[in-house]
Amino acid sequence: MPLLEIKNLQLEFGTVDRPHRVVDGVSLKLEAGKTLCLVGESGSGKSVTALSIAKLLPSPPVRYVGGEILLEGRDVLKMPPGELQKIRGGVVSYVFQEPGASLNPVFRIGAQIKESLTYHRPEKANDAEVIRLLKLVGIPAPEMRLKNYPHEMSGGMQQRVMIAMALASQPKLLVADEPTTALDVTIQAQIIELLQSLCEQLGMAVLLITHNLGIVGDIADDLAVMYAGQIVEVGPVRDVLKNPLHPYTQALIHSVPKLGRDVTRLTTIPGTVPNLGSIPSGCRFHPRCPKAQPPCSTEPPELMTLANSRQVRCPLWDSPNLNQPANGSL
User: Is the pTM of this model over 0.85?
Assistant: First the structure.
């Protein structure tokens, strides 16, 4: 049984008379000890999907109109408030982007980590456990650092503190939502390496939310690509990066700069992710797709299951003119 299984999840914002479907039929699986990366441009619905796992999106304004979110076989969407409080942190923890905005600026970091311990593991709410957690995430001189305020630490160190806070409850699933945003490239690599190491050490599953395809090859077991509220491609990360089937996945990979290549202009995807109030008919990517055919504008494609655990939302995925090389794996 998967640790996390999302089945046909459907979420809406807006009024009942004018609903906006922000997540439309999303299905994902994540096994214990594995890492799944969910990628796509801003506005694709990645963070909304991630927040729904622990039902952190308040209702209203969001409406959970369909589907299931199974954590260890239990449907989160049917849990009473008391049970939800137990899984939040106890089973699934979150690391959000912009750690400087997530940490409380008027409390020392040791006190903030200890607060998480007090709620989930009160018997361990002491300085020794805080120091152990700071060591676990690679913070030097943790005995001194626990007395620091957030502003006294760099962005990379703040993100490590956020990861320590998330690990304080010993979760089985860590959801990292854009954990490398606003960090320089060197620190990004360190944070990704840390997440990978923690996953191996603790046997913890990781759901990594990102729009950066350049980092997923080093950490992920599986890759899911999301566009305009729908999953458009799923598969083992190496297979997807080496042989992307959906035109959107191909476009994302082509837009990643390649080392050693002399170019005067970076490759981009024309247009933008559609507004939730004006989702195009047919395939949602067809207005931006250079390979779109006339039926693409009228017939909504289904997510098809192929061999080798691959899924793709494009009926033309095996057409010769769609199979462009990805110019090497990332």
Answer: yes
